[in-house]
Amino acid sequence: MPPLWKNANSLTATAMMQTWALVVCAAALAALAGAQKPGRFLSLPQPQKCANRPKEFFYRGHNYFFTGHVPALANKKFDWLDGRNICREYCMDLVSMETQEENNLIFKLIQTNDIPYIWTSGRLCDFKGCESRKDLEPKNIFGWFWSANREKMSPTNQIPNGWGYNPWSQTGHKKQRQPDNAEFDINGTTESCLSILNNVYNDGIAWHDVACYHEKPVVCEDSEELLNYVASTNPGLRL
């Protein structure tokens, strides 16, 4: 099985068939995140929505928006997969924080607007195909990746390369460092998705593993993969 976090390079028309084979595969995997709603898949981008996507702020070539600041989405919350699909319709995906600077930008958004929580694209590789990956064990340390770009995260018990701190919270429901998979002990549901919580456990703004069925607002970030796909299939469309 190829790495789920393989970097997505700029796409060409000739590579599009291979790209969408990956997307279809990812869709089947992502559907597992919403076990309470079986049979769901990742949404394809909608060209007109992509062309008119909200652009709340800009960072290193990517546009972002918070659903709470978009009138049509302002009062809505989504489970993790539905959150991804809302973003994907706009040629975007749930936000991924690969650098401390980007992470601080999202933390500032949350703090300034007193947002209680959001989903990110962070996902635990605990679905079919991950069980034979010895390099991902133990999962709570080595098994996390950004689903938006399939990049592997740093081990959860270490400060990521280039960062000055570990963004995972030091506490949670079980009063231990995150990720702690706390809900599994309560109802057998794995906490497979990464949320940023705002001082829920008197721990400031920090990363937490959360069961994917919980509903939260989201921050969407441009997806180069989806933008390139729509650009190649809709000549003349301004994105």
Automatic annotation (TrEMBL):
Family annotation (InterPro entries): C-type_lectin-like, C-type_lectin-like/link_sf, C-type_lectin_CS, CTDL_fold
Keyword Signal: yes
Domain of life: Eukaryota
Domain C-type lectin, first and last residues per copy: 59-221
Transmembrane segments annotated in the record for this chain: none
SMART domains assigned: CLECT
Signal peptide segment: 1-35
Name used for this protein in its record: C-type lectin domain-containing protein
Native species: Papilio xuthus (Asian swallowtail butterfly)
Species lineage: Eukaryota, Metazoa, Ecdysozoa, Arthropoda, Hexapoda
